[in-house]
Amino acid sequence: MTTNESESANVNAVEKGPGSGSPQPTYRWLKDGIPVADYSSSQFYRIHNTKREDAGSYQCIARNEAGSIFSEKSEVVVAYMGTFENQNEGHLTVVSGHPAIFDMPAIDSVPKPSVSWQAENRTLNYDIKYALTQANQLIVLSADKQDVQAYRAHAMNTQLGREEASALIYLNVTGDPFVEVAPEIIVPPQDLKLKRGEGVAELQCIANARPLHELETIWLKDGLPVENAGILHTLNNPWNRTLALLQANSSHAGEYTCQVRLRSGGFQTVTANAHVYILEPPMFFTPMRAETFGDFGGQVMLPCDVVGDPTPQVQWFRNAERIEAQLLSGGYSVKADNTLIIKKLTLEDEGMFQCLATNEAGEKSAYTWLRVKTATTEAAAVPQPRVKRLAQPRILRVRASHAGMGSGPRSGSGSGSSLGSGSGSGSGTGSGSGMGMNAKHPGKGNKRKEFRFGMGIKNAKPLTAHIHYSTHCTSN
């Protein structure tokens, strides 16, 4: 979600579909893992007169007597724009036939600005002479006397609708205007890491030579012409400088080569290579059970069957707190396949166990409610109330206007609680002092009162608003 400084917007993040918690949950919001408000019945969090320091990662915590569930993270970006840092005119001198490379002057802008270049006070023609790099550089290819003039960059912050113009940079060209120049790759393609399904990704190969109109650029994938490689792609300009990869999948992985030569010959072909890697976000191929029962004093194994590319890093949590202390004490251990082993189950081990898997492509979590079976609990078993599954909050709509994690309750003996399981993307990486989910333990001879509260986790998608925002995290 993107907002603007000193303005206002309301963003409602509501659950996906019907859901409920019993008792009614209370809500808390965190920014970068730190609570920004206390638990309350209000499902909104509002920021007035948004400032840059309000940017960050926000999460909603929903809590009732069964415990706490945390939502996926939602990134909030505060849009702003400064001016070009250097307001002094510049000068650039190049040899005739060689490229003139104009670096983009520094400017502070969030999000990154859209950049265009002008010569004097006119827009540059769409021409073989000019190339704009992914770093917003302007390259005047095969520069000659006709290119001697002043150039400037225009930066537009599309979120704010604000534009800034840089100081002029004057170009001077020297040397023989008739000497041929051998082909040279000025901007080679760069390695890419793409998430599976990513819409469009570009490889750029910008070359220079004289005569420029004789220059030819050819793309290969794994040694084959790209048009014969069986991948979705397109070439974005008549000079083949940009290869766009569409709807990334495993077929796009491999080595890409751009070959540059003069059609008329006379010089060697030059090449540059780049590798494309396809990343797979974590995915659970075996769902966790809604509830896991273990015998008092026995051993329990909780699987975390997750795959991804690269191999996900796995962390285990109990009641939203990392289990480092139990691992250090030897009471818990984690196998090479990420299965958590509780060696000797006690009542204190009861609670929500969550497996969080993370790699470069994203993160995903799954959880189960671990319950301890004893003679007392079996004798005191009572029918459990039916509770609907509570979906994760997510951003649904944006409208302009002018307008954490705490420990769950721990009470005395005599009752118990249970929590539904689910899986989805989201983060539980808060510290141990963060979100706690503490279950009540049964007292001897007392009946257990059952509570259930579940929240499925869905992939977060950032939205755009015109600032000052409020987030809505509800249960029906």
UniProtKB/TrEMBL annotation:
<dbReference type="InterPro" id="IPR013098">
    <property type="entry name" value="Ig_I-set"/>
</dbReference>
<keyword id="KW-0677">Repeat</keyword>
<dbReference type="GO" id="GO:0016020">
    <property type="term" value="C:membrane"/>
</dbReference>
<dbReference type="InterPro" id="IPR036179">
    <property type="entry name" value="Ig-like_dom_sf"/>
</dbReference>
<dbReference type="InterPro" id="IPR003598">
    <property type="entry name" value="Ig_sub2"/>
</dbReference>
<protein>
    <recommendedName>
        <fullName>Ig-like domain-containing protein</fullName>
    </recommendedName>
</protein>
<keyword id="KW-1015">Disulfide bond</keyword>
<dbReference type="InterPro" id="IPR007110">
    <property type="entry name" value="Ig-like_dom"/>
</dbReference>
<feature type="compositionally biased region" description="Polar residues">
    <location>
        <begin position="1"/>
        <end position="11"/>
    </location>
</feature>
<dbReference type="InterPro" id="IPR003599">
    <property type="entry name" value="Ig_sub"/>
</dbReference>
<feature type="domain" description="Ig-like">
    <location>
        <begin position="281"/>
        <end position="368"/>
    </location>
</feature>
<feature type="domain" description="Ig-like">
    <location>
        <begin position="1"/>
        <end position="77"/>
    </location>
</feature>
<feature type="compositionally biased region" description="Gly residues">
    <location>
        <begin position="405"/>
        <end position="435"/>
    </location>
</feature>
<feature type="region of interest" description="Disordered">
    <location>
        <begin position="1"/>
        <end position="25"/>
    </location>
</feature>
<dbReference type="Pfam" id="PF13927">
    <property type="entry name" value="Ig_3"/>
</dbReference>
<feature type="region of interest" description="Disordered">
    <location>
        <begin position="400"/>
        <end position="449"/>
    </location>
</feature>
<dbReference type="GO" id="GO:0098609">
    <property type="term" value="P:cell-cell adhesion"/>
</dbReference>
<dbReference type="Pfam" id="PF07679">
    <property type="entry name" value="I-set"/>
</dbReference>
<feature type="domain" description="Ig-like">
    <location>
        <begin position="183"/>
        <end position="273"/>
    </location>
</feature>
<keyword id="KW-0393">Immunoglobulin domain</keyword>
<dbReference type="InterPro" id="IPR013783">
    <property type="entry name" value="Ig-like_fold"/>
</dbReference>
